Amino acid sequence: MDLTSVIETRPGVRSGKPCFVGTRIAVYDVLDYLASGMNIDEIVADFPELTAEHVRAAIEFAAMRERRLATPA
Questions:
Q1: Cα 46 to Cα 37: distance, rounded to the nearest angstrom
Q2: How far is 23 from 7, CA to CA, in rounded Å?
Q3: Which of 16, 27, 60, 73 is a good FRET partner for 67, with 20 to 30 A between their CA atoms?
Q4: CA pair distance 42, 46, nearest whole angstrom
Q5: Distance separating alpha carbons of residues 49 and 2, to the nearest angstrom
């Protein structure tokens, strides 16, 4: 998935945290909801601007970030 079509960082929006395009919903918020036990359907129900694809993009974003942090410089 091309994450740049789903996730963006805008100065002045949520302190520059990565958000879903066209929203103020931060990727980290969705990851926190998943970590707290919410499932994809519950997140989408609470945030109708999002789809299951957005939630999967958040997981992919976190995995890519972890790979970068785990790779020695």
A1: 14
A2: 10
A3: 16
A4: 6
A5: 19
Which residue ranges make up each domain of the chain? 3-70
CA distances from 36 to 5, 30, 57 (A): 26, 10, 18
Residue 26 has pLDDT above 80, yes or no: yes
Instruction: Give the CATH number of domain 3-70.
Output: 1.10.10.10
Q: How far apart are CA 35 and CA 17, in angstroms?
A: 18
On the question of pLDDT at 72 being above 80, the answer is no
pLDDT of residue 73: 64
- Cβ burial of 58 (10 Å; 0-12, 13-18, 19+) is buried
CB contact at 8 A, 43 and 33: yes
Q: Could you give phi then psi for residue 7, rounded to 5 degrees? A: -125, 135
